[in-house]
Amino acid sequence: MSTVVADDYPTRVPNEPRIFRRPDPVVWGDAERRNGDVAAYARDGYVQRERAISVARVRECLSEIERIGADPAMADDPRVIREDGTQAVRSIFDVHLLSEAVWAAVEESGAIELAQEILGSDVTVHQSRLNYKPGFAGGAFYWHSDFETWHAEDGMPRPRACSASIALTPNREYNGPLMIMPGTQRFFVQTAGQTPDDFYNESLVTTGPTVGSPSEEAIAELGESHGIDLITGPEGSMTMFDCNALHASGGNITPTPRSNIFVVFNSVENGLTEPFAGTAPRPEYLARR
Fold this sequence. Notes:
It comes from Dietzia timorensis. One of its GO terms (molecular function) is 2-oxoglutarate-dependent dioxygenase activity. This is Ectoine hydroxylase. The protein has helices at 31-34, 36-44, 55-70, 95-98, 100-109, 111-119, 146-154, 200-203, 216-226; strands at residues 19-21, 46-49, 80-82, 89-93, 123-133, 141-144, 161-167, 178-180, 187-189, 229-231, 238-242, 247-249, 258-267. It is an alpha+beta fold. It has a single domain (45-267), classed as Jelly Rolls, CATH 2.60.120. The strands form three sheets. Strands 2-11-7-13-5-4-3 form a seven-stranded antiparallel sheet. A four-stranded antiparallel sheet has the order 6-12-8-10, with helices on one face. It starts with 18 loop residues before the first strand and ends in a 22-residue tail after the last strand.
């Protein structure tokens, strides 16, 4: 008999969605009192570090990405997500397993140790991917909370997870950088609608609002009260952000590509259960169990 897990973050509701204060902490443990980066993370929902990895490591990772993208064996691999209607690569999942060089970059960045401090425990990789916004063809990622998806579709019980984004190219104001509403990590934003079966096949390529997206009214309310920070920085920089922070990124119609390694760390004390949306668990490359 499976264990029933209480749902403190109900979402995909049939009625009017609401915004409520998160009952769990943002920083788990006492690192906020000892570490300035962790204190900034607790306040804003994210923290940035420049020169987290070396120029040589950046070049090595870019070469690896070209190798993976050009590998004929990966042409029909479900872990390679292409922009809707084109052959342009949008994301490559399981990138930490596909490339030793990428994992070496994650280790060099200090992301693992920072995640352990924030989450107050050992960590495991919930998901990894390369987000690639090629010049002229990079699609947008609409406003969302990662935890809302991971809770509903993967069965992550609590928002005890964080994401490291490591820049392999400059993240400029004009080439689709990450946008975060600082402080929204402290609030859970319910969404409305029923989750279709195998919804990830659609959601991974969708650039606009869909099931799991907050309402325009909620986005406007939180944008007015919290503002929007544009996360830019040179190649080699790293941004750690909270799984519940509301974030998005615009499309890239410039000639300048934007590539980031993206690794999600989950606390080992926050193991996945059955999805709270009542659907079948997503594939392992999206949610490692």
